[in-house]
Amino acid sequence: MTTTQSFNLLQPYKIAEETFVIPWALEAPPVGHFHMNSMVIRGAEPVLVDTGAPAVRAQWLEAAWSVVDPLDVRWIFLTHDDRDHAGNLLAALAACPNATLLTTWFSIGRMAEEWEVPINRCRFMTDGDTIDAGDRTLVAKRPPLYDNPTTRALFDSKTDVLWSVDTFATNVPTPMPETADLSPEDFRDGQLFGGRLVAPWAALLDAAKFEAVVADFQHLNAEVIAGCHCPVLRAPQIPEAYDLLRRLPEVPPWTEFTQADLDQWMALAESSVPPEQPRPSGT
């Protein structure tokens, strides 16, 4: 297991055979941080899984090409078109001329308002579709939770690694490689908070119907779960994460921060600003 001592943002780290997470995170006061990760599968036909955020484009591209030569990349799996997942898509497509974009019809349409994605380089992936990537089979799945209707998760049947996209999102006190570095309380609270933040509609779900969706996802039997907005999960936290996921329809919705909260934060920020110092004479 990777330790926090060897963990640095935008420095890829290995989570399974030929599989690497590119970690990034944003500070999210007052709840800590949220990861903004992506993944690279090296293998016989290398795969980029999401393309990072545009805010760190140069660093993300450097990190990705430190794992794989862009000319060797054969697949770019875009889970959905939100900018934290698709932010460097055009740059990646330009750098990887031999890559096919795995996405959805709706995702292409949503991106068309800003980007012209080369449709001749696309392959549409519906729920349950598979890709033969040479030495492994990749499975596209709609995850239980998502904040974008085009979302597809990705399961690698060779390594039993699941890219869960926004399912299992959690806030963390500081960026970290694995959820094992969280206290049991922070893990539990983070799963319930992240789930409600990503999918506030979970409170509207029929619990029995949702259970069937969660069970289907869990039956992939992933041994490692990575995602955009969470550190890597492994046993025994994977079963616990699924149990917490099942609870979401019965958990009261998260109460959003209000203007009163913002006013309080701004007042605290202003009170902490040191007074302006007098300028030295002669300036």
TrEMBL record:
Protein's UniProt name: Metallo-beta-lactamase superfamily protein
UniProt cross-references to PANTHER family, sorted A to Z: ANAEROBIC NITRIC OXIDE REDUCTASE FLAVORUBREDOXIN
Pfam families assigned to the protein according to its UniProt record, in alphabetical order: Lactamase_B (PF00753)
Highest taxon, organism lineage: Bacteria
UniProt domain Metallo-beta-lactamase: residue ranges: 35-204
Organism: Saccharothrix variisporea
Coiled-coil features, chain-numbered ranges: none
SMART domains linked to this entry: Lactamase_B
